[in-house]
């Protein structure tokens, strides 16, 4: 599946604009991580782009979220490594994160929310207005970006990355698509 085909599939199933932007952000971070680790950017990017494809219809049922999306992706012929990473990114299923791809998707999902929240509290409301030290300070504030699971973000250590390194890759990757995200 090409990236354009994947985006078309995503927007057929995910109608909430902010969730589409979230998917773009996770795609960007996953591509950045793939470059960092010398992995396949196409595969990693598709995993990030499509990881929440079922969210509009499963958001109120966490036990279904990511399972239905993964099933859809399998029917669409995506590689098993993407299908499994999508399944495993939801803690509700208790699936082990076996591959570097699985670990990257799991940690990247909430990181994007933390980064977006950081940009939105700045007067400029731009990703260019924030840096890693700013994000690290905000990371430790429990009241800031409550939905961004800190333990999940800290699982970047499973990839051999420090929190600072992970945030740097994530922020730089998202800054590269700031125009698409409107940030």
Automatic annotation (TrEMBL):
Domain HD/PDEase: 15-123
Highest taxon listed in the record's lineage: Bacteria
SUPFAM superfamilies linked: HD-domain/PDEase-like
CDD domains: HDc
SMART domains cross-referenced by the UniProt entry: HDc
Full protein name: HD/PDEase domain-containing protein
Species this protein is from: Desulfofundulus thermosubterraneus DSM 16057
């Amino acid at each position: 599946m090409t990236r354009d085909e994947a985006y078309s599939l995503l927007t057929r199933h995910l109608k909430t604009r902010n969730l589409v932007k979230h998917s773009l952000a996770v795609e960007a971070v996953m591509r950045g991580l793939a470059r960092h680790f010398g992995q396949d950017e196409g595969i990693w990017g598709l995993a990030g782009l499509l990881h929440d494809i079922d969210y509009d219809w499963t958001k109120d049922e966490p036990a279904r979220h990511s399972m239905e999306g993964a099933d859809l992706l399998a029917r669409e012929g995506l590689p098993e490594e993407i299908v499994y990473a999508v399944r495993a990114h939801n803690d509700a299923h208790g699936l082990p994160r076996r591959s570097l791809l699985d670990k990257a998707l799991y940690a990247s999902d909430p990181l994007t929310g933390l980064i977006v929240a950081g940009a939105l509290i700045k007067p400029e409301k731009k990703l260019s207005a924030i840096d890693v030290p700013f994000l690290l300070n905000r990371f430790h504030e429990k009241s800031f970006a409550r939905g961004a699971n800190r333990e999940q973000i800290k699982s970047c250590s499973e990839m051999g990355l420090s929190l600072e390194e992970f945030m740097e890759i994530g922020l730089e990757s998202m800054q590269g698509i700031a125009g698409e995200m409107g940030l």
